[in-house]
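hey m, so remember when u said the tokens were messed up on ur end? i reran from scratch. heres the input so u can diff it against urs
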Amino acid sequence: MPRINFHQQLATLKDKLLAMAALSQQALEFSVEAYLARDMGLCNHVLEIEQAINAAETTVDEMAYELLAKEQPMAIDLRFILSVIKINGDLERIGDQSTNIASRAAALDSQPAISLPVDIEDMGARVGVMIRTAIQALLEGDAALAESVIAMDEPVDDMNRAIQTELVAVMEQHPEVAVQSLNAIIVSRNLERAADHATNIAEDVIFWVRGADVRHKFSMIQSVEDRHLPIN
């Protein structure tokens, strides 16, 4: 009976983490929409969601640490609880990045709308897919699905670098749109960081399911590949 109760508590912990994950996903999507549409109502809604995320983070942490202290879990159950604690932190930070994006949207409220030569909408959509896929991998305990999230991270990094390069050039040539360009650079950077947190979540799902630490595996592979690129 005690062991049954323990696994019921694990299921409850997972449910609470997934509910928090849904909030983080919403916050990111709404913040990008608020930025693109300059919707101040959505900006305020993102701030409200972020408060709920912070409250959920405290609840999940307390439950996880209580299970660690009282149940002294072993093997996969221990890995699950440790992963929950780490994922919990990444979900909260996605909420923080979303709040930062909403703040950039609010800062543009008094600025004239202009068209910039970058695609924040596409970048936001890509990051949204990463977060949703990482959450799905967590829900299903699917390490292969989690690996697909890790593979999505580098293209987002490339987009962030390209956006920053492009907008620095825009500011040099058109100082009158510096405010809008700088805000877009900051939004791009926040999206790139949110993608990093989605990657962290995916890596923790792999650790939970397989017991494998892959935090540096993919970066090491990329580094080796880079060293063997032909020099033109």
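this time it looks ok to me. The helical segments are 2-37, 40-71, 75-107, 120-140, 143-173, 178-210, 217-227. if urs says something different then somethings off w ur setup not the seq
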